[in-house]
Amino acid sequence: MKDTISELHKQFCADLETILEATDFQRVRDQYFSRKNGQVTLLMKELGKLSPEERRDAGKLINDFKNFAEQELDSRQEELKRRAESLALERERVDISIPGHRPALGSPHPIVRARQRIEDIFVSMGYSVEDGPEIDTTFYNFDALNIPQGHPARESQDTFYINDELALRSQTSNVQIHAMQRRKPPFRVIAPGKVFRRDTPDPTHNPMFFQVEGLTVGKNITMGDLKGTLQTFLEKLFNRAITLRFRPSYFPFVEPGAETDFSCYLCASKNSGCRVCKGTGWIELGGSGMVHPNVLQACNIDPQEYSGFAFGFGIDRMTAMLYGIDDIRHFFAGDLRFLTQFR
Q1: Is the torsion defined by CA of 91, 93, 99, 105 positive or negative?
Q2: Which of 32, 130, 180, 335 is 20 to 30 A from 203 via CA?
Q3: How far is CA 23 from CA 34, 40, 77, in A?
Q4: Is it the case that residue 57 has pLDDT exceeding 80?
Q5: What local confidence, expressed as pLDDT, does residue 221 receive?
Q6: In 3D, which of 141, 137, 163, 162 has the Cα closest to residue 151?
Q7: Alpha helix (H) ranges present in the chain?
Q8: How do beta strands 166-168 and 135-137 pair?
Q9: What percent of the chain has pLDDT over 70?
Q10: How many CB atoms within 10 Å of residue 260?
Q11: What's the rounded Cα separation, in Å, for the pair 8 and 32?
Q12: How many domains are there within the chain?
C-alpha cells in the first residue's frame, strides 16, 4: 500500500502541472476524488481487505495523501481565479491617455423649436396651451364648427375618414370646441398640434402638418382685440415692428372672417428681389375672425353675453420663414444632413 500511494503521489504531482484552465482542474479533481471511480475512493475501498494493523497504517497514508492533494488543488484553483481576473482586467483596461470621442447629441426638431417659441409668446400674453384628440367625431370636426352638410371640407377628397363618425382632424379647431365645453368665459387658449388633409405634397403643402389655433372668449371682444393680439405676437416672434392687415374672407366658424397678412419682416416694403414676400411686401398668416354665434351656442355659451375671436396658421410655414427654408417637405424627410443644421 505504501508503494502504491507513493506512485499515486508522483502521478498526482505530474497531473497537477497539466492544470491550465478550469476544465483541466475539474478533470484532475474527478480523477482523484470522484465518488465512484476516483483514485482516493478506490484506495479507501481496499482498506477493508487489510488486517486491522495494516488498515491503521494504510488509512493514515491515504489521509495524508488526501489532505495534500486537496490543498494542492485548492491552491491551483485560487491561482486559476487570480489569472482569470488578471486577464479580465487587462481586457477591460481603459487607456485614459487616448483622446475621447464626443458623442453625437440630438437636438429639438426645427418645428419643435418654433412651436415652443410660439407657445412661450402666447403664454406670456396670458394664453393657456390646450391639447386634444387627433381622431375626433364629426361633431367636433364639423358640426360644432358650423360646417354644414355638403361643405367641401366634409368631403372625403379633403378629409381622412376612419368611418362615418370618426375622422382625422383637418384643423385644431376641434380642440377649441373641447375647451369651450370645459371652460367658463373669460378664457384665452391656443391649440398647437398635428392636422391631416388630403393635400398633394409640394413646397408649401403636406398631408400631415402642424398648426396652431388661438381662441379668446369674453365680454366685449372685438376685431380690434384680434388685430392687437396678432400684431403683438408677430412683433415678438420677429423682434421688429409689424404692420397687419385683414382681407375679408369666409370661414363657417367665424363671422366676420378675414385672411390675415403682415408686412414682410425681411424687406419691410415691396422689393422685387425679396425671397420671402416675392415682391408683394405682404406675407399671408392665416384665417381669423370673430367666433360665429352658432359655434358659441354649440358649446352652451350665450352669444348675447359673450363674444370671441379665433385665428389659425401653419407652424410649418412659420418655421420655414424663421429659418429661410423654401420647401417644408425637408422637415419630414428625416435627412440628418438637413436637421443637424439646427443644433
Answers
A1: positive
A2: 130
A3: 15, 20, 11
A4: no
A5: 96
A6: 141
A7: 2-16, 22-33, 39-46, 52-91, 110-124, 138-141, 173-182, 223-238, 293-298, 315-323, 336-339
A8: antiparallel
A9: 98
A10: 24
A11: 9
A12: 2
116 shares a domain with 62: no
Q: CB atoms < 10 A from the CB of 195, how many?
A: 21
- Quote the CA–CA distance of 121 and 118 in Å, as a whole number: 5
Q: Structural domain of residue 321, as residue ranges?
A: 110-342
The per-residue pLDDT for range 144-195, each reduced to its tens digit, is 999 988 888 888 888 999 998 999 999 999 999 999 999 999 999 999 999 9
Contact 108, 170 (CB under 8 A): no
- The β-bridge relationship of strands 282-291 and 135-137 is unpaired
Q: Is the pLDDT of residue 269 over 70?
A: no
The torsion angles phi and psi of 120, rounded to 5 degrees, stand at -60, -40
Of 89, 119, 140, the one marking the end of a domain is: 89
Cell numbers given for 183: 371652460
Q: State yes or no: pLDDT of 50 exceeds 80.
A: no
Does residue 271 register a pLDDT over 70?
no
Written as nine digits, the cell of 73 is 488543488
CA nearest 142: which of 115, 111, 113, 164?
Answer: 164
* CA dist., res. 65 & res. 22, Å (int): 23
Q: Which residue is it, cell 391639447?
A: 131
